Amino acid sequence: MIFFRRKDKDKRFKGLKRIFWRLTICLVLAAMALGGLPLSQSLQSLLTMPDNVEVIGNNLNLMEESDPSQELLIKKIEDTEQLTEVALEKSYICGVETISLGIFDTAEMVSIIKQHPDWSGRLDQNRLILNEQINDLSPECRENAFMGMDPNGNLILYQGEPDEEKVIRTFFQLDVGTMESSLPEGVLEQLHKGIRIQDVDEYNSVLSTFSDYAVAPVGNIVR
């Protein structure tokens, strides 16, 4: 796990270096401007904040406030007479929990939805089931999640050790040959046995490390 954390830190360090140099350039350009030195039009544009940034932000807020999916859900609730119970479904990176919030009338259900614009929802008989996406591992996954590789070379998130074959999620196929020649000794063997995942940082570190060895290009992995 030290290997995965070190690799993840190296990537973050490179990102910080890029930010540092960009900031340095901006400071130099600003000093030139204050000192009366001529700047080209392209350099001046780097120091100027676009006028439409605030407008774009306001438009995004308006879009969130008038989310059509939320309005549709509210309309369905108001049109359903038998709806009484509300449940919250917490969807984690690994694992799902469902808890009952209790009995509510229509106005209270609508109020809950408006208070949580990032939640989605659906109707199931007499229940309103709200869904919250959580960028973390569920308590159960923290106890027994493993990252491993199946016989076909696919990177898998398992519930329990890989030999129990309880697959939670399949990510991508790995280039095993390249891994054997480039990874430190013991890492590939550790992957076969299963790498214990106890929190979201370990999850992201291991996933980021092995995405470098994906057979096909890996885009933005859902964290």
Question: What would you note in describing this structure?
Answer:
The protein starts with a helix and ends in a 12-residue tail after the last helix. The chain is α+β, with helices and mostly antiparallel strands. The strands form two sheets. Strands 2-1-4-3 form a four-stranded mixed β-sheet. A four-stranded antiparallel β-sheet has the order 7-6-5-8. The protein is built from nine helices and eight strands. The relative contact order is 0.12. It is elongated.
Sequence-ordered SSE layout with sheet pairings:
Layout: H1 2-34, H2 41-46, H3 53-65, H4 68-79, E1 85-94, E2 96-103, H5 106-115, E3 120-124, E4 127-137, H6 139-144, E5 145-149, E6 154-159, E7 167-173, H7 176-182, H8 187-193, E8 195-197, H9 200-211
Parallel strand pairs: 1-4
Antiparallel strand pairs: 1-2, 3-4, 5-6, 5-8, 6-7
